[in-house]
Amino acid sequence: MAALVCHEDGALVVERVPVPELGPGDALVRISHCGICGTDLHHVAGRLGHGPLVLGHEYSGVVAAVGEDVEGWVPGDRVVGGPGLGCGACPPCRAGTPHLCRLDPVRGGAGNGSWATFRRVAAGQLFRVPHGLDLRTAALTEPLAIALRAVRRGGVQPGDRVLVTGAGSIGMLAVAFLVELGAEVTVSEPSAVRRGRALRIGAREAGEPGPTAVPEGPYAAVVECSGRVEVMEQAVASLARGGTMVLVGIGAGSRPAFDARQLTLTETTVTGSVDYSRAEFAEALALLASGRLPVDDLLEPDDVPLDEVATVVPRLTRGEIAGKVLVAPGSGLRGER
């Protein structure tokens, strides 16, 4: 099969690799669409050390085969890949948050390997795509679940004034979800094209970061998606008393310094958010199926074949693209089976 391999120097090369072999409990999924996320960009830029690997974890597809002992799935089922399985025994796993597994943390999250014709996945990670929801839109489930969890951890209520810093794909999805909740959203983002898209989605304001990096508050919550230290530090001061800042963006080497006295006197909360629970993933999938989100503004209109991903990555890094870019591994490839 064809796979887009990211090498240690960041080079992206389409290569022929074996179709994964299935073990007990596995499923083979033919990939329909897979998003390009910020973590993928970090890998390509060399900020995360790795050997040759196939990226891509925001995927949708169709079951092509199942391994031994797999029940409930048959070839032809339309699916998206959800949370990892974890150990299944520790308190976070029993609570439905296997991404916080204490004993087997490597298995948390949706994993990588979807910039390819097929991928192997533990069948327990699969979620069925609802009738009427197309696979292209369903590929938004994973990043939407991340945004949804971040907003939930911020305790946002309808009518709250909320600041979203950084309007990449997760930030943009957070804006869409916040607008759906009835929050009043302000966006801080250096890219003009992304600011414009955020306003189309429903943000009340969208400004370019200035000397203070973030617009003046107070905000009930900040959803921090930029990963920039100066933004994190300044956003704390923009919170209302009792407000919460949720850190979502992971900047390389981020080490923000917060004023402990200010946090104490204002009862301000700074917390992190990573991945999602199984319930939140299911909620994100149902929200996409409901048709209540502006999907046309959240997705770029054209799919990208494997051999064109390398040309898109620099534009994403520079903030020239506002919507989620989807890779279609079967597009433009001949003889794939």
Explain what the structure shows.
It is a single chain. The chain is globular and about 60 Å long. It has eleven helices and 15 strands. With 337 residues, it is of the alpha/beta class. Helix 8 (260-266) links the parallel strand 13 and strand 14 (269-272). The model is unreliable at 107-111 (pLDDT under 50). Strands 3, 5, 6, 7, 8 and 15 form a six-stranded antiparallel β-sheet that branches. A six-stranded parallel β-sheet has the order 11-10-9-12-13-14, with helices on both faces. Helices cover 28% and strands 23% of the residues. Helix 4 (141-153) packs across helix 5 (169-181), helix 4 (141-153) crosses helix 9 and helix 5 (169-181) runs parallel beside helix 6 (192-201). The longest helix is centred in the middle third of the chain and has 13 residues, at 141-153.
Task: Give a brief rundown of this model.
Helix 6 links the parallel strand 10 and strand 11. With 337 residues, this protein is an alpha/beta fold.
Percent helix, as a range, is 25-40%
User: What fraction strand?
Assistant: 15-25%
For the biggest sheet, the summary is:
6 strands, antiparallel
Gyration radius, to the nearest Å? 20 Å
Q: Mean pLDDT across all residues, rounded?
A: 91
Give the N-terminus to C-terminus distance in angstroms. 7 Å
The total count of helices amounts to 11
Structural class designation: alpha/beta
Low confidence ranges: 107-111
Order of helices and strands: EEEHEEEHEEHHEHEHEEHEHEHHHE
Shape: globular
